[in-house]
C-alpha cells in the first residue's frame, strides 16, 4: 500500500474515533453547539472515505481510455468534500435556529467539554500529519482533508469556550448562537476547499515559483538549442504536465536534438519527479524571439 493510501486509511480510523467522542459529548450535554461539532465530524468520515476511493483511482496508471492518467480523480474528491462541508453547515444553521427558538439549560457540561476537548486534540495532531504529508506527496485530496480538519479544530475550540461561557453565565441562548457562528465558519471552509480544487480541474498553471524553476532549467540545460517558446504547464494531483516548443539550428541532426531534449527532461524531473514533459522540436525559422532564451 502506498504512503498516500495508508494516510487516507488512517483518516477514516481517526474520523470514526473523533465522531464517537463528539457524539458522546453531545449526548451527555444536549448542546446544539456540540451537536454541530459532531455533525461536522460525520462529514469528516464521509469525505475521508471519498478521499481514499479517489486516491486509489488516481494511483492507477494511464490506459487506453485515460492516456494522461487518473490524477484528476483527487480533485473531484476535494470538490465533493467542499460540497459536503457546505451541506453540513446548512444543517447546523437549521439546528441553531431551532435552538434559538427553544433555548434550554445544558446537562453534564464538564464531562461533555472534556470529551470534546480530547477529540479536538486528536484532530489537531492528525490535521498536521495530513497537511504536511499531503504537500510532500502532492496529494490534493489529503491537503483538502487536512484543511477541513483544521477548520474543525478551530471551531471545536470556539465551541468549547462558548459552551463554557453559556454554563458560567446561565445564558443558554449562547449555545445556539455559537452553533450558528460555527456553521458560518464551516461554510467559508467549504468554499475554500472547492475553490482550490476547481483550479486543478480547470488546468490552472503551476505556481510562479515552479514556473520560474522550469524556465531556468530550460535556459541552462538546453545548450545547442536557440530558444524555447509557448511554454505551458498544468497540474493534476501529484503530476505536473509541461509542454513547449524547442527551436534548434536547421542543420541539427535528429539524434542531437533528441540528446538536448533528454538532458532538459532529466534536469526537470530531478526537481519535479512526477513531471510529464512534451517537447516539440522546430527548425530556426520557427523562432519567435520570445519565451526562454538558451544560455551559451
TrEMBL record:
Membrane-spanning residues: 7-29, 41-59, 75-93, 113-131, 152-171
Keyword Metal-binding set for record: no
Keywords: Cell membrane, Membrane, Transmembrane, Transmembrane helix, Transport
Major place of residence: membrane
Domain of life: Bacteria
GO biological processes: intracellular zinc ion homeostasis
Record domain Cation efflux protein transmembrane: where: 11-202
Keyword DNA repair: no
Domain called Cation efflux protein cytoplasmic: residue spans: 207-284
Membrane topology: Multi-pass membrane protein
Protein's cellular compartments: Cell membrane
Gene Ontology CC annotation, any one: plasma membrane
Single GO MF descriptor: zinc efflux antiporter activity
Family (UniProt): Belongs to the cation diffusion facilitator (CDF) transporter (TC 2.A.4) family.
Name of the protein: Protein p34
Organism of this sequence: Paracoccus amoyensis
Amino acid at each position: 500500500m502506498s504512503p498516500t493510501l495508508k494516510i487516507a486509511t488512517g483518516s477514516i480510523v481517526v474520523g470514526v474515533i473523533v465522531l464517537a467522542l463528539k457524539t458522546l459529548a453531545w449526548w451527555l450535554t444536549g448542546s446544539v453547539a456540540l451537536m454541530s461539532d459532531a455533525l461536522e465530524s460525520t462529514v469528516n468520515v464521509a469525505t475521508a472515505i471519498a478521499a481514499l476511493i479517489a486516491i486509489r483511482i488516481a494511483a492507477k496508471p494511464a490506459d487506453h481510455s485515460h492516456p494522461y492518467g487518473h490524477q484528476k480523480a483527487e480533485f473531484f474528491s476535494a470538490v465533493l468534500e467542499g460540497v459536503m462541508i457546505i451541506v453540513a453547515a446548512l444543517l447546523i444553521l437549521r439546528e441553531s435556529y431551532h435552538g434559538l427558538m427553544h433555548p434550554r439549560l445544558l446537562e453534564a457540561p464538564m464531562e461533555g467539554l472534556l470529551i470534546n476537548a480530547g477529540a479536538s486534540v486528536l484532530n489537531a495532531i492528525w490535521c498536521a500529519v495530513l497537511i504536511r504529508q499531503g504537500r510532500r506527496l502532492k496529494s490534493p485530496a489529503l491537503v483538502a482533508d487536512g484543511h477541513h480538519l483544521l477548520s474543525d479544530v478551530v471551531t471545536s475550540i470556539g465551541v468549547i469556550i462558548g459552551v463554557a461561557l453559556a454554563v458560567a453565565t446561565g445564558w443558554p441562548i449562547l449555545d445556539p448562537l455559537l452553533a450558528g457562528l460555527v456553521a458560518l465558519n464551516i461554510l467559508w471552509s467549504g468554499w475554500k476547499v472547492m475553490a482550490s480544487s476547481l483550479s486543478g480541474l480547470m488546468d490552472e498553471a503551476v505556481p510562479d515559483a515552479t514556473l520560474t524553476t522550469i524556465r531556468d532549467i530550460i535556459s541552462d540545460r538546453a545548450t545547442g538549442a536557440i530558444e524555447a517558446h509557448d511554454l505551458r504547464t498544468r497540474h493534476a494531483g501529484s503530476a505536473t504536465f509541461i509542454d513547449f516548443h524547442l527551436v534548434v539550428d536547421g542543420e541539427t541532426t535528429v539524434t542531437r536534438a533528441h540528446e538536448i531534449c533528454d538532458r532538459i527532461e532529466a534536469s526537470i524531473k530531478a526537481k519535479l519527479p512526477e513531471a510529464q514533459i512534451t517537447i516539440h522540436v522546430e527548425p530556426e525559422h520557427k523562432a519567435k524571439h520570445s519565451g526562454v532564451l538558451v544560455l551559451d
